[in-house]
Structures are given as structure tokens and as C-alpha cells.
Amino acid sequence: MAPPSNRRSGHSRRAQYGVFTGYVVAGLGALIGALLLGISLFQPGFMAVPRTIATDAVEPVADANAAVRNEGRGFIESIQGYLRAGSQNDALRKEVELARIRLAEAEALKTENARLQGLLGLTREDAEPVTVARLVGSSSSSTRRFAYMGAGRNDGVREGMPVRSARGIVGRVLEVGRNSSRILLLTDSESVVPVRRSSDEVVAFAEGRGDGRLDIRLINLGVNPLKEGDVFVTSGAGGFYEPGIAVAIVSELTDDGAIARVISDPAATDYVSVEQIYQPQATQGAETPIEEELGAEDDGSDTPEGDSEGDTDGQDAADDEG
Amino acid sequence: MEQLNPKSRSDAYGSRINRDHSPILIHLVPWGTILLGCLLPFLPIISAIPLVPPLGLLFLLGWRLVRPGLLPVWAGFPIGLFDDLFSGQPFGSGILLFSLIMLGIEFFDTRFPWRSFWQDWMAAAFAIIAYLVGAALFSGADIGLIALASIGPQALLSILAFPVIARIIGGLDRLRLLRVRVLG
């Protein structure tokens, strides 16, 4: 089809100016876009306020939609369950027997743990989650991996707080609106989490690759000690995440580490809980320049620990986004 | 005449006597569907990799190519701005890319005035690939080969979705031009 003739302005001055203005405005639009893009690449928090207001505005719709989505998935899963019931039953029975044994072992470990903690005089109160909310949406068409959650400043959510599901770490709060907030998922290529192997003290960084998996970068180089199926948990270094929460499971070995799958896949997650920052003082220490004394801007009521700076390099990349 | 054929004084959009297009529908349908398209990838699924086609862009391309002359050249600016609020990209990347794509299609229009759907589809495919690669580069993340490769499925899905979207827009265009306003 030939384009309509309104671009061919002929001899009409008015039409000529109209077409010309259109091009000028479009070019100006592109220029303004480039300018805004430049600013927001250097200052990721730029325009956060309109963005959070917009997210707040669509949050009720997204929340209702999330409920429907979860029910729909449950329906499909229950049909799949019927189809696979027989073989699954058999496998599950074997698994339960093994799990009983493991449970007994865990009980033993628990009592021993309690005894040792008593010896050391450690008291550890279980931190209550800040809030529990639904994952309402994600940036599913963008290369960046963000999710949106139906809880915000009104529920006590603050920037930097870790977000976890029942299975493990999901990500960290990046921007907070009144009733919604944006989460940096583990798989985002700017996300870095300090982890250790669950069975021993092999420490590493889990970095998002941008293709839905994580890169496990070992800190101590040498012979690669990793095996397929190794589970990594948070190490607590950096002060953001509580130690011992499941992060990833190794699926493929590389020369200097491994590629791992996220244990808490956000696609299969409906409710998430927002936790307090594990060691707020340590994260504050990471942000304070070396020349400045720690806690100089504080009210001075408590003395922050100063030994955390070395551990937190991995968090810096993620911090830039906040 | 009506006794022979009751539709004789109507066209595809309704009676031509005493009826006209609604000015609200005429403007609301294209802009509304594009903005809704910007909003849609936010809603349905939460995925670990980028997979959902950029529906805002697809609807913009669809309206621009199926109904040339309907959207002004500068339409990329407001739509990109709206898209930036929800896409998760750094603010401004949508404005820049949507504006450049609109200017590019304008150039394509003058270069190839007579064309069929196949050429439109090809133009849309180029625009989609350019947008996805551009968005990945401007996303502020470290873009390696892996991240670029992970665009592949999304690009393929988006290109294959274009004919469907164009078809939907054909239907929406009939809705847009319904003669519902009563004159006089």
C-alpha cells in the first residue's frame, strides 16, 4: 500500500511547516532521550520517583493478576500431578525414608549446636521478617532482571533489604514506592552475592550472568574443588544477607568456578518475605570512604564494627544501582 | 434501494447516513493499545530470562506500518517515556530508541513507498532486532556474548508475533472507525 499523501506537502506553506516541525520534534525527542539515558546510566537512581509512582498506580491490577497467575499455575500443576502420580509415588517413598534418616541426624546436630552455642554464650534471636508480600510483576521484556513486589514504604520496606522466598534468596530491594518496590533479582548481571558451599568453607561470589543463571567465582584460585550438584548458601559477608540461606546449585563446571542455577526461581515464587538487613552497620561501613571515620555522621550511640570493608567489594556493583 | 439491499447505504463501519466516526475512539484506540502494550510485559509472568516480546514496541510498529500517517513522527517520545516507567530499562532508553525507530520508519517510507506486507514485516523485524540489541547495550548491565545470545529467543518470538499483532491491529482499526456518533 502506498503511504497516504499527507507527507507530500505540495505548495502549501502550512503543510510544509507542519511536516518540518514533526521532524524537528521527533529529532529533539531522540536527543532528549539520549540525554536522559546518559544521566540515568551514570546516576541509576535518576527518575526513581516517577517510576515508583507509576508502579504504585498499577500495583492493584498487578496484584489481582498475580493471584490469578498463581491459581492458574496451581491448576496446571495439579493436572500434571495426576499424570505422573504412579512413578512419583514410588520415588517419593524412597525419598521420605532417606529424609527420615537425615532428619534424625539434623536433630542430633541441632542439640549439639544448642549445647555449643550455650558454651559460647551466643544468643541469636530469630529476626522477624519486615513484611510478606506478593511478587506482582517483572521486567520480563528487558535485559535487566527486576521484579516488583506489592509492599513498599508503608509496610516498612527500605532500600537494600534482602528478599527471600521459602526456598531461598530472591534478590534485594532496589527502589521503594509507597505500596510497591523494585527488586534486583539474583540473575541480573549487576547482582553479586557472597556465598559459600553448604558442605564446607569454599567461599565465592555468585554473579548474575544475564541468561537466568549465576556465575560462581571462587575467591581462592587453584584446583577447582566444585562438583555438579553442589549447593551454595549465603556466607553473610558484606552484611546484607543472613548467612546460610540457599542461593544456587551448580549445574556446569568452568575453568575458574562454575555456572549455577538459582534455587529460588522467581517464576515459581508467589509470596516473598522481606528481611531486615543482616548487619546494617557493616553495610554502612562499606559505603563510608576510607578517610572518614566510621559512624561519624551517626548519633554515636553505638560503635560500628570496622572490619567489614574487605568483605564487601562484591556488593559495590549492586550498590551502584540503588 | 434499501428494499433491495438493506446495506446499500452502509460501509464496513456502519451506516453512512447520519452517522460518523467517534473522535474519542479514533484517538483512544491506537494510543490506548500501544500504552497497554507497554504495560503488559510487566504483568503476566516473572521470568529469569528476558522472553516476553516488547509489546509496546510491537503495537507501535503495527499501528505505524498497518496504518501509515495515523501516528505522528514524534509519537516515539511520549510512548517511550511511558514505556521507560515500566520496562526496567534506565530512564531515557525507551525515549531514544522509540524516537529513532519512528524516524527510521519514516525514512523507509520515503525510500520504499509501494510495498506489501512482506516488506513491512521485514522492516518490523529490523526494528525489533535493533531495539532489543540497543536496549541490551543501554541497559547499564555488562553485556557479554552470553547476554546478547539470550536475546535470540526473545527476538525470534517478537518477529513471529508481528503478523499476529498486525492482524489484531487490523481488527482494532475496524473498531476505531465504527460509525457510532449520531450527527444532528
Describe this structure in words.
Chain A is 37% helix and 21% strand. Chain A has five helices and twelve strands. Chain A has helices at 13-42, 48-83, 85-120, 280-287, 313-321; strands spanning 131-138, 146-149, 162-164, 169-176, 181-185, 192-197, 203-208, 213-218, 231-234, 246-254, 257-262, 271-274. In chain A, the strands form two sheets. Chain A has a six-stranded antiparallel β-barrel. Chain A has a six-stranded antiparallel beta barrel with strand order 6-7-8-11-10-9. The radius of gyration of chain A is 25 Å and the shape is globular. The two termini of chain A are 49 Å apart. Chain B is mainly alpha-helical and 184 residues long. Chain B has one domain (10-178). In chain B, a hairpin with a 2-residue loop joins strand 1 (10-11) and strand 2. In chain B, helix 1 runs parallel beside helix 3 (76-87) and helix 2 packs antiparallel against helix 5. Chain B is elongated and about 70 Å long.
N→C terminal distance of chain B: 23 Å
Shape of chain B: elongated
Q: Assign the CATH superfamily of the domain at 44-83 and 125-288 and 304-322 in chain A.
A: Rod shape-determining protein MreC, domain 1
Report the total helices of chain B: 7
Summarize this structure as a short list of keywords or feature phrases.
heterodimer, A: 322 residues, alpha+beta, Thrombin, subunit H, 6-stranded antiparallel barrel, 5 helices, globular, B: 184 residues, mainly alpha, two-stranded antiparallel sheet, two-stranded antiparallel ribbon, 7 helices, 61% helix, 6% strand, elongated
